[in-house]
Amino acid sequence: MGKITCQVLKGTRDFLPSQFIVRRKVIETIEQTFEEFGFEPMETPALEYAETLEEKYGEEGARLIYKFTDRGGRSIALRYDLTVPLARNMAMYQIDKPFRRYQISPVWRADKPQKGRFREFWQCDADIVGSREIWADAEMIGLTYFILKKLGFEDFTIRINNRKLLNGMALYGGIKEKQMGVFFRIIDKSEKIGWEGVRSELESKKFSRDAIAKTIGMIVQEGQGSDLLNRMKDTLKEIPAAREGISELEEIERCLGNMGVTTNISFDVSLARGLDYYTGPIFETVIEKPRIGSISGGGRYDGLIGMFSGKDIPATGTSLGLERIITIMEELKMLPVTSTLSEVLVAVFDRSLVGVSFQVAAKLRSAGINTEMYLKDDKLKKQFSYANNKGIPLVIIVGPDEQEQGIVGLKDMRKGAQLTVSLDDMTQKVKEMLRKGE
Amino acid sequence: MGKITCQVLKGTRDFLPSQFIVRRKVIETIEQTFEEFGFEPMETPALEYAETLEEKYGEEGARLIYKFTDRGGRSIALRYDLTVPLARNMAMYQIDKPFRRYQISPVWRADKPQKGRFREFWQCDADIVGSREIWADAEMIGLTYFILKKLGFEDFTIRINNRKLLNGMALYGGIKEKQMGVFFRIIDKSEKIGWEGVRSELESKKFSRDAIAKTIGMIVQEGQGSDLLNRMKDTLKEIPAAREGISELEEIERCLGNMGVTTNISFDVSLARGLDYYTGPIFETVIEKPRIGSISGGGRYDGLIGMFSGKDIPATGTSLGLERIITIMEELKMLPVTSTLSEVLVAVFDRSLVGVSFQVAAKLRSAGINTEMYLKDDKLKKQFSYANNKGIPLVIIVGPDEQEQGIVGLKDMRKGAQLTVSLDDMTQKVKEMLRKGE
Asked: What is the ipTM metric for this complex?
């Protein structure tokens, strides 16, 4: 028999059941919290007209979008994130607002694969469209907080800033409006290249020494800490954009307090976020240990939907990076240990008795019990060892004696104990044992 | 503000929450039944090396695979179905067998979009790998039966045949082994082009008149009906392949009987299934009303995994077409009417009271109640009408009086009734009202 090459594309992954089941548990927790916050699931297609995605993600994005021409000559792209398709969608349909949706889906980037960086990976996005109120931004931050708590995280920090405040700081330092985009993108690199790196990159882009000293000085010296907003309010009192940004951050703090979120948040004027389209509050979550970059990021983007609709529709949202979250949970041993969803294996005593095994399996399944039937005429020992390896807690065996007496043998693989029970009582007994074993 | 073109790619779809929630309910029912049968979820990537998919789907497939060359010069393809990626996967990993997995994922085909035919659509596949026993095929058919019953279908027929029997019939008619593939592909068109069409296409492919008369005559005259297998056994008693095929179908009938599946199945020797890779039992489900083609199809493919691994690994599986199933359920008004997952809308009385609304929402959410907070300073009337349009059953309002007294107003949108309840009793009361309203 011929053999052909057989591998997954680099940067993409197979998830075998034992891996996928754990992954899905994490996804379900995120979904549940999204829904508790009134977000509802929505889906956009993986394929979009390339034009829809082009010029939305800056230079890096342009390079990383998977694009191709189909047989009809159409220029097509694979979804690069979940935000731009949402914006396209929101411009197309008339929907009651404020509108909340979440989407948990794969996105594709033609990136160089490396540890923790994939070409196909999942994002978990929640967005509120149609509310200008800063309350909506507070909801996004509260949502992030409760998801991470529910997943079991303790040592995380949600960093919060405001593009308006950053604008004000830049204006205060003498940076011109039209240089803002470049300025923020360089600031955003401080974690990677350090503040000295930021300073020299700003210099190379012809920002004046004075402006650099004034702005970066302020960010580095006054960047964080408990009294940040008050100090900033004082320093920047002459700059309207800054005053507005600070007052929005104060409102966020109050809303979070009312939600019971008083820890794990930090106002931090060094946070810039790379994307061009943010217009107000921005936020991201970092984990101190292990240090792995941000695990969520988001902010207000009041202009993006307007690029599609021609109408100004405000929006704010957050995106959780599923891959990083799972990587960290793995490292910190926070993941559940489930390896199978099957609860009972119905063994096949021998070929002549396969019929009664089918009957037993049908009975358990009709009661909603996840039941695998062993589908080979193997020795019982091999069947037990199969159940054991897979982590299936119970095995049912019907031999000729059991069949004659209308009973089944029931083995608890967790304890090695075996008992018999009548066919009539079997379902009840199995349910009890599954509960007890938990 | 500039406006750019804004549309979904033809043949792909957005699913807004009201659509997606219903879709997900159908998916959940399918998932649940898969799991009751011991199948576990698995995922393969959307992107594969083109080589993995090429030459697996016959001529039509070759034309419809989305292929492109990435920046690194690699030839890449989008998943065309879920079976070939599974085969690739099974050849790569050492996993205990018999192995059961299911996958519910989108696949892509560069087809001409038309009513009910999409470029991006979802398949629901379950497969058993590593069992040669015909029991496994019976499981696949039983699984299909119970899924359709659980979804609420009554008038469906699972047609069952066996490639071995078809082979035997063709040999009996004088058709040569190497012509089998072409023969089956033409037979498979009988629903589309009629038996006369099949006859003339076979003639055009140089099959002898005698062979055509003998085989098609047998299929048309003896094709279905209760005593089919016995009649066939008699006619084809000299052909070993046919005898083996018939005995496998008898075994399937016995297994199904033991599962309690005695209706909605039909042995039918006119069923051929188009794909080359089937080697044993084949099956598909048709709905009589509305007539829309098959809604599931599958069979045994003992050679496919071997194309990747070089080792012979038997397998059987079934694939449910989610789009057709949903289309039919829509037409027959079988879909659930859920339009929202949100259970409570917390209104905002006015800007000064937004804090207490956040407190109330936080309280309900922490009790696991899906709670949307209204995020605009609109008139209460508008907020009620928002809840009403969306189908949210309960609205909570806290005005200044309520706040002072530590109570909340609670409006049941289903009845229009309004009452007040203390903050302490709120969660309990809401839970009761949600239960009662069901």
From this structure: 0.92
